[in-house]
Design goal:
The protein has about 325 residues and is an alpha+beta fold. The protein contains six helices and 14 strands.
Length: about 325
């Protein structure tokens, strides 16, 4: 069948766009720091460059304006004259003085004299403004670079989910794995069933979310993700798949969203990885191939078989039947 629109892509990206915000869009400016962090890298770099460029040109223009109003530009080469800023002859020299001051380079050729109170005030203002701009923009870039989004790319989910019997019970299963040697601390997994339904009152819910039990009561949802694990949802009378059979699976339309959360061991930041399975990606009567083997003194994981499944005898009936 033709692949339909997903609520969550296989790579975890949510296919939701917000529109017609009206006056509510001003809320983004009230939290400007988070708005900048959420922007794409190209916009962050553009804002970073434009902010510094504009601030440098404005402050250099103010130093040049002070020298122009005091007449320092016309008498800069007079050894008997005491200017506001020594050796500032034009706008490029005023710009260089600002850069030397802002970057604390201090070449010693250009400096403020004691007979310029307006220059001292502008110097204090420049120092305060530069500290605020540096803290805001550099802090934004640091937070964006340290976000654990790339860590989620080394967390794997099986391409398909399977339905087969385990311990005499019909179960929906999928596999998760961690490609890095560093662990995910306090890793927890959750599953949501996204399916349209109509209430007894006639209300239509296009994207109704229902929780799938993957071991909340037993603690099986708390993962020790050192090796690939198979996550199991038992299909019983409380499961939304209670009436699901092999035949009805072909006509169903649903999406299972899987959310894996944990703390990155090396940075201590919370990481979240997501994926989803549509009805076409649920294989009835299949089981995952083993990927663990015992070598000389250690266990070896063969990730080439991570997505592989094989058929097993499974009743084609639903649990209700």
């Amino acid at each position: 069948r033709r692949e339909r629109q997903r609520f969550v892509d296989k790579n975890g990206r949510c296919n939701v766009q917000h529109g017609n915000l009206g006056g509510e869009s001003s809320r983004y400016l009230s939290d400007l720091f988070t708005t900048l962090v959420d922007l794409k890298w190209r916009w962050n770099l553009l804002i970073f460059l434009l902010t510094y460029t504009v601030a440098w040109l404005v402050m250099a223009s103010m130093w040049w304006g002070i020298a122009y109003l005091r007449g320092d530009l016309h008498q800069a080469h007079d050894d008997t004259y005491s200017p506001c800023v020594a050796n500032v002859y034009n706008f490029p020299s005023a710009f260089l003085f600002f850069i030397e001051t802002e970057a604390t380079i201090g070449y010693g050729h250009r400096y403020i004299t004691e007979r310029c109170p307006e220059g001292i005030v502008l110097f204090l203002f420049q120092s305060l403004l530069g500290s605020v701009v540096d803290a805001f923009l550099i802090g934004c870039m640091f937070i964006k670079m340290s976000q654990p989004k790339k860590r989620a790319e080394t967390l794997m989910f099986s391409r398909a989910a399977v339905i087969s019997q385990r311990d005499g019970k019909l179960c929906l299963m999928f596999r998760v794995g961690n490609l890095r040697n560093s662990h995910m601390v306090s890793a927890q997994i959750r599953c949501k069933l996204i399916k349209s339904r109509q209430t007894p009152e006639g209300e239509f819910l296009p994207l109704d979310q229902c929780e799938l039990d993957v071991g909340f009561g037993t603690g099986a949802d708390q993962l020790f993700l050192v090796s690939p694990l198979t996550i199991c949802h038992e299909i019983n009378s409380e499961s939304p798949f209670f009436c699901l059979s092999q035949r009805s699976l072909r006509s169903e339309q649903f999406e299972i969203v899987v959310i894996l959360e944990g703390i990155v061991e090396t940075t201590g930041m919370t990481c979240q990885a997501r994926t989803s399975y549509t009805e076409d990606e649920v294989l009835w009567g299949h089981r995952f191939l083993p990927v663990m083997s015992l070598e000389d003194g250690f266990f070896r994981v063969d990730y080439s078989q991570f997505h592989a499944t094989f058929e097993v005898p499974t009743p084609p009936y639903s649990v209700k039947e």
